[in-house]
From TrEMBL:
It comes from the Bacteria. This is Ldh family oxidoreductase. Belongs to the LDH2/MDH2 oxidoreductase family. It holds the Pfam family Ldh_2. Keywords: Oxidoreductase. Signal peptide: none annotated. The keyword Flavoprotein does not apply.
Amino acid sequence: MLVDTQDLTAFCADIFRGAGVPAEVAGVVADSLVYADLRGVGSHGVLRTEIYLRRAAEGMVDPHAEVRIERDGGSTLLVDGSNNFGAWVGVVAVDHAIARAKQTGACVVGVRRSNHFGTAAYFVERAIRQGCAAMVMSNASQTMAVTGGMTPFVGTNPVAFGFPTGREAPFILDMATSVVAKGKILAKAKLGGSIPEGWAIDVDGNPTTDAQAAVAGTVLPLGGAKGSGLSMVIDILSGVLTGAGYGPSIKSMYDNWEEPQDVGHFMLVVDIDRFLPLSAFTDRLADYIDTLKRQPRAPGVDEILHAGEPEFRLQSAASASGLDLPDPLVADLKSMGARYGLRWPEG
């Protein structure tokens, strides 16, 4: 079903507000979920609305808590997320980082006591809009075995890098450290379907294409030992360094209903003007991209795209025509909205 993206964002925000979430927090959380869908990352999109609502209802997330700076080192900040929604915590943290980078040239922010924050690109793009370069990463509950293991030890810990290009499509590399984000497997399992070979192993350590078996088992690291090592680096920076949970101490969003997740994030924001005038930087990056696109193409390739360009094109198309959501997901959203007397946006 096609739905207007602004209507969908407002509908989801109203669901959260109906559940008692403050309006500003509800708006950010809903916006972050729709943003993921717009960029083709449905595993982190409005599909997550139900689990977010349940986490708040069960007291595992406190949407009223104040996100505060716990330690201020000038160009470094330690932010206490106070167990609020991860998207809200992430926005507050990156906005602090942007403001401080404009003062000092760069700012490193560590975040503790947060929750699942969706797509890292969402926060990177906020920095890009302010003429900054950014790196954002987060750890997550254990869903991935390290190289040589067969049980989950780390999360699919994502990292994103972003730069303004002076053009419509910014350069954004947003990636999980697994072959595929666990959310994509969860989405397949929820909607019914198989997964490609190489995504996951089952509980006995055997390769599987069964989404349900993969959920019970573990996803695999991207590039073997390289992805495994990178995930651990993200865990160290986001968890060990910040005082947040790390490794198996991070609580599952789906299975633990007694303790908050205690997710950690790590952010670096750089004011580009401290190195080059922003216009000079974007001119140079535009030349870099143009040179990239002129490279000889492999057989069957019509165009070479820079990181973030495919997602930007999806985002632009969906913003214009509406998001095409699966019928079961629409039914779930309608049911959630009905609890608060909300009507699904038609047409």
